[in-house]
What does this fold into?
Amino acid sequence: MIPIRTSRRTAEISWFADLCGGDTAFLGQLDGHRRSNFAHCQHIVQQAEHLGFNNILLPSSYMVGQDPFTFAAAVAPSIQDISLLVAHRFGELHPPMLARSISTLDHLLKGRFTLNVINSDLPGMREEGKVRYQRTREIIEILRQAWTQDEIHFKGEIYQFDLSSEPVKPYQQNGGPLLYFGGFSPEARDVCAQYCDVFLMWPDTEEGLKNTMEDVSKRAASYNRKIDFGLRIHVIVEENEEQAWLSTQKLTSKLEVKRGEELKNRAQDAKNMGVLQQDNLRENADKDGYAEALLWTGIGQARSGCGAALVGSPDQIIDKINKYMDMGIRSFIFSGYPLIESAIKFEKYVLGRLPNEKLARIQGRIPENEPDTPLTTKPLK
It folds into this structure.
């Protein structure tokens, strides 16, 4: 198996919140009853916590949706157990102020804060990849110093600081929050290998995922590190395979190609390498949109970003997730259309049958003093 940080066969099972305005029962249709406002998104988060998910992704997009940090601060008092995976585009906040924002949220959540690092163009700008990745590297170095040292002493190409780190100390005093990072380019993979804890992948064939994991794992080894791997993917699960297939037909029954393209291209990252890879996956799928067994690519017709779903019966979905876990994937961020109804269905058919870190501890199947490092805590640097 590919060397990974969390060797124990357990998984972080996460859900997705609709901060970017795509929650609907019909692909390509904006649903006024499921608008991306605070009340609806809070309901999604609270429902995910109630159902037993470990974590929930709060995505970021300048063009559409709500600010993840502001939303996280507002929703924190209404949850007790679920973690928040907050997406942030590096460069949008001055690094010391970013460190303070993260520290504040980490204290509000009592250590249940995790960070999805986004390396992309800043709103209204087009930058060379070299500039963006240099900025991301420097900000991560600054955050690391802020979280583990008494003072920040940093001299980089972009940032230079000599500051006390006292105002930015997080709740987590064992290295700071976990860092999740995704990207298709070699530069993205290298940044994650050197600095981050979880490399997030979008849907691909099993062979494609394995090749990516092997490459990132080798890069991590060159820095004397091991990292975990995560998969961000949609899911359509029904009582049997035929009903699951019918659900894909219902989901796309009102889709107009032109409208789908409009919704897809409204996001600022609609033409980045990862999205183009999702397009390529769909273009090479069979006539029904399947890139391989159970992996349906129809979602990408009207959505930028993660563009495919697992489709099948409970047994089929569980078998597929187990294959992913055997490959070394330890974090899953699922979603469905619509989000709340799909979360309830996923819990009914799938969640309790997975080696879920959170549910296992609740049920007493993993002792609290288990020596192996679980995904939900960060080791000392």
In short: The longest helix spans residues 129-148. Residues 359-369, 377-381 have pLDDT under 50 and may be disordered. The chain has twelve helices and 13 strands.
